[in-house]
Fold this protein.
Amino acid sequence: MPKQTELAGSSMGSRGQSFLEWIGELGLFTAKLARSTFSAPFHFHELLQQMHEVGTRSLPLVVLASAATGVVLSLQTRESLVRFGAKSLLPVVIVLTIIKESGPIITALVVCGRVGAGIGAQLGSMKVTEQIDAIEASAVDSFKLLVVTRVVACILMLPLLTIVADCSGILVGWLANTLIEHVSLLPFLADGFRQVTFHDLLPSTARTAIFGFIIGLLGCFQGMRTTGGTEGVARSATSAVVLASLFVILADVGLVRLIQVLFAP
Amino acid sequence: MSQPPTGSPAIQITDLCKAFGGQTVLARVNLQVKAGETLVVLGRSGTGKSVLLRLLIGLQQPDSGSIHMLGREITGLAEKDLYEVRKKVGFVFQNSALYDSLTVAENVAFPLKFHTRLTGSQRQDRALEILARVGMEEAGAKMPTDISGGMKKRVGLARALALEPDIMLYDEPTAGLDPITSSEINDLILMLQKDRAMSSIVVTHEIHSAATIADRVALLDQGSIVFDGTFAALKQSEDPFVSRFVQTG
């Protein structure tokens, strides 16, 4: 009878092999995505539909989440700044925090949950019910139609959603602040944006296109490799959200450092 | 690429082999379907009948052997060329595989959207026309979830007909249906064959369907064709497996 340590070792080896296979398949999938994105035919109508699905339909959730973040940020920051006698810095701290970090990351995580899961479940369901085979049998490239359009829609919509999230967070942050101590909106914004430069706004917002790529890619990848019926679809949806959230956070670490290096004042 | 003259092969399968993870599913299968002919492939569940159809339109690749469709070798064909072949082949899926986010009419119009220059309203008219041929003109605006299994089969059939194919492949077209609906689907297949003179392969395990629609019957067992001939010859076969299949079917 094999010892427990041998069994554990064999199980770890098998998991390691599965992980390496997953990485390899993801690499091939990404390469196919790169090739397919820039070659005809282009499905613009489907792309617009997906942009509506990713962008317009995520808007209420993104606005609400960033508004809540704006309130919390305003309340917490105010308390800390009052303690250090730097209350006048409140507008700029709120604006910079939202623009540089909380707006992009909150938007990405909300879209991960809503769109990542949706893509994983939808493609997974289409895979197990042979709808993707039916598209192929109709002589239509299912990869271009389903994957390319979804990933490109995520890449295009994330920065736009982030701008809306930034506006929502800053405005509600002001509102929370003014309810405690009245400050007019225009002076608040003028103070807040006085020290904000192009280098604060553009790279931080643009990096969400990479978050969009990660969300679209992992949602589609997990969905397209679904096996095993409804249980498989549920697994794909869950793994799409978990992996996309994890990879977005990890990418954020690298991108923040990269932006600091490339756009150093 | 068009339908070859009647009598010449529309589909030619030679020494086709396919295995999954060491388990042989198809072992040197040889079959031929002439232009305008309907071949019914019979066999027990899990004998590789559906795999055979998937290989024929390149949804899966064979391990070895060759497949000629309308005179063109399709194994190892580039994706772009494969799509050209698929435009000439209609595929009816076992579970219909209708797009659940589209209406019945949109499902039928789907291939037209990508392969014709028809406008949206022209596509809609054409889809309703095709639906009328399969007796489903009333269901155009319904969603696939709102129609019965038999109706789904008809819509799947209509979608496969949208591009007016030269070859039709049916994967268990009557599976899971009651005897009356099965009979209606068989009649529909016969009617379409008569109207369009397409070459067809129908995969099924139902002897009754084979008796109704087959010009020729092939029996698949353990990855090999164990019988190839007319239905009358199948019934008279003295091969133990063949006669057992016919008697119990």
Summary: The radius of gyration of chain A is 22 Å.
